[in-house]
Fold:
Amino acid sequence: MIKLKDLIKEDISMSQLNVVEKHLDKIWAKVGIDVEFTRHFHDRVNDRRNGKPINTAELLRIYKQIYKRYGKPISQLSKGTEILLKDMSTDINVPVVLRWNGRELEMIAKTVMRKKNFKSRTKKYSI
Structure:
């Protein structure tokens, strides 16, 4: 039997995610960082294991608030550094890696999940 929630179209389309990325690029460019979302990130943002769906407003919020509080220190981390962006109010966790692409520092979001008590050995930047 097919359940209704299995027929519902994904909450965030790839084109919507691209718009979010471009908006965040403008903000993070002030500290020399280019925000990137992977295909896996897109798949995981729409995963039903998140419980409540993750929406674009929540993604914008976490990246903007992390930028306000930690943008400069994050921009000074070395390439290859892995960190965790954590929103305590929505339980959204975004593990990212910083990579130099030859022109600029990229902050590549590897995945995203809504989970309380998310465990990670990497440095956490929480809002």
